[in-house]
Amino acid sequence: MEIGDFAFRLLLILFPGIIATLIYKRLILKKKWESIDFGINILLFGISSYLLLQLIYLIFRAGELSIWKRLQDNAPIPYLEIMLSSITALIIAGIATYANNKKTINNISYRLQISNKYGEDSLFYYFLEHKEITEVHILEPTLNLIYDGHVKYYSEDDQVKEIVLENVDSYNYQTSEKIDSFKYVYLSKARNENLIIEIPK
């Protein structure tokens, strides 16, 4: 088998892992990915998708996947298996995304008193993602303002923290006197600036 043919086969076989990795990266909160992150995730998602497909084959007595031998010989590429494993890869990526964003492993370790680590993202996400947090007060002492509203969207990257509030009332920071009402308010702060968020009782 020539190197070019081997690389082509390898790319096709890893295709389910590539799809799952791209979806997973798009949906989770982790910001920076190194090259090794892509490689490990492609490999793990790829193998997992074929293992899940193999399990389905065994349950329905369809035999063993031929994909396991296709790096070693010149036999036809099993396009059907690659296509089916791409579907199982989507399922696995969805489960992995849910587990990551819901901090499933961290929550289990916390309940088992193994670790108090809440995840890889910042406390900004951790604080706002709780279901019971809807109405918030955002304090702007420098602008002499308080915003009272419901969290609609929030985001953070290496430069800024952003939050969108819905059904917002603004108040004077010093006197607590109501100033105005808005349907939406967009707030943005540099990552190194304070964004003071309070949760009313």
In short:
The chain contains six helices and five strands; from the N terminus they run ααααααβββββ. It is an alpha+beta fold and 201 residues long.
Sequence-ordered SSE layout with sheet pairings:
Blueprint: H1 3-13, H2 15-27, H3 35-59, H4 79-101, H5 104-111, H6 123-128, E1 135-140, E2 145-156, E3 160-172, E4 178-190, E5 196-198
Antiparallel strand pairs: 1-2, 1-5, 2-3, 3-4
Helix pairs in contact: 2-3, 2-4, 3-4
Quick tags:
2 domains; 5 strands; SH3 type barrels; alpha+beta; 6 helices
Distance between the termini: 69 Å
Helix content: 40-55%
Dominant shape: elongated
Structural class: alpha+beta
Q: Which residue ranges are poorly predicted, with pLDDT under 50 across at least 5 consecutive positions? A: none
Radius of gyration: 24 Å
Number of helices: 6
What can you tell me about this protein's structure?
- The mean pLDDT is 87.
- The chain folds into two domains: 107 residues, no CATH class; 76 residues, SH3 type barrels (Roll).
- The termini are far apart.
- A hairpin with a 5-residue loop joins strand 3 and strand 4.
- Helix content is 43%, strand content 23%.
- The longest helix has 25 residues.
- It has a five-stranded antiparallel β-sheet.
- The protein has six helices and five strands, in the order ααααααβββββ.
- With 201 residues, the protein is α+β, with helices and mostly antiparallel strands.
